[in-house]
Every structure is written in structure tokens, then in C-alpha cells.
# Entry
Amino acid sequence: MKKKETLEFCKAVAYSSTANLGPGFDVFGLGLDFFYDTVSIHKLATKNGKIKIALDKNVNIPSSAKQNSASLSVMKIAQKFKIRNDLEIRITKGVPIGLGLGSSAASSAAAGPARPTRTGQAPPPPQEPQPQSRRQQPGAA
# Structure
């Protein structure tokens, strides 16, 4: 089988989380730095507009783009920016599945920033908020 040519790719990670904090009914949540998922999106040379999910062996998550949480944001971005190239989403699971640590959310959250743009480059990371300077009120001393 001939390997498909990758034109460009982007990569991102997302850490685990939990909202199982007792009687908060998933209202309270914490980000955890114990585990993380890595998602890379590869823009292929073929132009059929298809999205494929590639998984590590022995990972029991959906491999269909329509069923995998990591592909939703990528599908929407590809539609919005009219990306015609086939895309391959490679997911490396580091967040354990089924333990309430946000394994689906981690894959989905990593896929957003890893998305290809029109140029194929990842968007710049968000800037840290800068402290607002106090404006002197008119007439204040």
C-alpha cells in the first residue's frame, strides 16, 4: 500500500480534566496535568474532502470521523475555509478512557488548535491577557 503524501501538518496537546468533584453535578471542574492526548492533523495531497482518523493500536475509541469527538471542529473548519484536501487526524491517547478524566474532551480540545488553516499553518497561540492600565479620569488629580 502506497503511503499518502503529507503536504503540511499541525500538532497540539490537551491535558486531562475532571468534573467529578462531589455534589457539584459536574458544575465544578479542574484541569489536570497528569495525562494528555496528542492530536496532529495532516493535510494530504489528495483532494476528495475526506477526513480519516488514525489511532494507535489497542485504542478503543471510534475511528470514524463522524463518530470521533476530535473530528467535529476539524470538519467545521475545513468546510468554512473550503479545504478540499483530504485530512488525516492522528490521535495518540494519553488520557485513560472511562475513568472520568475527560478523555473525549482532551482529544476534541487538542484538535481545535491543531486545525489546518488556509495556509496549512497552525493559528498562533492565544496571547496572555495583559493588565489593563488605569486611565486617569478627566478632572482627577
